[in-house]
Write a structure and sequence with these properties.
Number of helices: 1
Number of strands: 0
Largest sheet: none
Structural class: mainly alpha
Order of helices and strands: H
Distance between the termini: 103 Å
Strand content: under 5%
Helix content: over 70%
Length: 67
């Protein structure tokens, strides 16, 4: 095989591999960002639900002043 042709194939293969790594890296970053976002949203939702529950408990515990 001609050395120049072989060198060109190696270069093309290397570029193809770099492109695959690049897209894999981008996909990984997007997955991690989505997981972080969903976790933060879930925590905020849990916090708001617990605050509502505390407010409801406090409202029930307050005596009614019927003067």
């Amino acid at each position: 095989m001609n050395p120049y042709v072989f060198s060109g194939q190696l270069q093309q293969s290397s570029m193809h591999q770099q492109t695959l790594w690049l897209f894999s890296g981008i996909a990984l970053v997007l997955i991690i960002a989505t997981l972080i976002s969903e976790t933060l949203r879930w925590r905020a939702r849990e916090r708001s639900v617990s605050e509502i529950n505390v407010a409801m408990i406090n409202t029930r515990a307050m005596p009614l002043n019927n003067h």
